[in-house]
Specification:
The protein is mainly α and 209 residues long. The longest helix is centred in the middle third of the chain and has 28 residues, at 122-149. Helix 5 packs antiparallel against helix 7 (122-149) and helix 7 packs across helix 8. The chain has helices at residues 15-35, 42-49, 53-60, 63-77, 87-102, 105-118, 122-149, 158-175, 182-197. It is elongated. It comes from Nonomuraea phyllanthi.
Length: 209
């Protein structure tokens, strides 16, 4: 699944409100990377962003509000899904985007902090889930196109196939704490594609035995 093409906080046109939000998102990401979700505070973010505490409290309300907006921003910044005309190429593009993101010093640390927080905090888990639901939904479109081209069986669940590509990479990042390499990405795509072509991701009829 695709990951953000740049870190949050890039200033875009839109006046002072947009600049304040960009500064706060940038400060939130920095604080999250340095201190983790539970070490992040509203006052800390306001000071880093150079804005008044009242502004941060009024607009975001809580630590959860900050990280939820940050994850929304990262999802918005993500590139659209690939359309190479070939499902193997599309899935490889997805795997490479994951690889780049998790090996990026800032983005990788951001995701690790959010994943760690999600194991013990429902608000953090919700923010992370919304981010991945958006990205999985975007990349599932590549699978739908492949089904239409006849590359994959009818009824293939695009979201499940995209999860199958990225899951081994995240397992190495978060669980076994191993380096995640290009070879890992290629192997993940190859295995997921073999399974998909064999019908492993075809959605079952709820009424079927």
């Amino acid at each position: 699944m695709d990951q953000p093409s740049r870190s949050a906080g890039t200033v875009r046109p839109g006046g002072r409100t947009a600049r304040v939000r960009a500064a706060v998102m940038d400060a939130t990401q920095d604080a999250l990377v340095e201190h983790g979700f539970h070490g992040l505070t509203m006052d800390q973010v306001a000071a880093r962003a150079g804005v008044g505490k009242t502004t941060v409290y009024r607009r975001w309300g809580s630590r959860a509000g900050l990280v939820t907006d940050l994850m929304n921003e990262l999802a918005t910044q993500s590139m659209p899904h690939a359309d190479t005309g070939d499902i193997e190429g599309d899935l490889m593009a997805n795997a490479l985007s994951v690889l780049r993101a998790i090996n990026d010093g800032r983005l990788g640390a951001t995701f690790q902090a959010m994943i760690a927080a999600a194991t013990s905090d429902e608000q953090a888990a919700r923010a992370l889930r919304v981010f991945y639901e958006r990205r999985i939904g975007e990349w599932a479109g590549t699978v739908d196109l492949a089904v239409k081209r006849g590359e994959l069986p009818q009824g293939t669940d695009g979201g499940e196939l995209i999860r199958a590509v990225s899951a081994p990479l995240y397992y190495r990042l978060v669980v076994t704490r191993e380096p995640v390499t290009l070879e890992d990405a290629e192997r993940s795509v190859a295995r997921a594609l073999v399974a998909a072509r064999a019908g492993a991701f075809v959605m079952r009829d709820p009424g079927a035995p």
